[in-house]
Amino acid sequence: MVRVAGGKVGVFLVGLDHLDPIDLGDYAIDRFETTNRQFKRFVDAGGYQKREYWRIPFVKEGKSLSWEEGIALLKDRSGRPGPATWEVGDYPSGQDDYPVGGVSWY
Questions:
Q1: Which residues pair with 29 in a beta bridge?
Q2: Which terminus of the chain is more solvent-facing, meaning fewer CB atoms within 10 Å of its CB: N or C?
Q3: What are phi and psi of 79, to 5 degrees?
Q4: Same domain flag for 53 and 88
């Protein structure tokens, strides 16, 4: 991951350009994309069951959640652990090397 300096950020999208800029704090972002194939190895190896991979406390609507409550929210379309854009524990056919989407920042 690499550090990205925060600052004032505006929205430059038609229909949203009326919104005031916001102050964004510094953050970290992955330097390289993770593919669906790579993320599936994590999912299949039980990554959603291993607390050591989920070090940031879960918070929803300002309320702290237990690890069990937080991890239960990270489901695919069929209710299995995984990215929200997946279904039945898998990504769409033919998208092995696409960047994984539908993952939580947690």
A1: 2
A2: N
A3: 90, 5
A4: yes
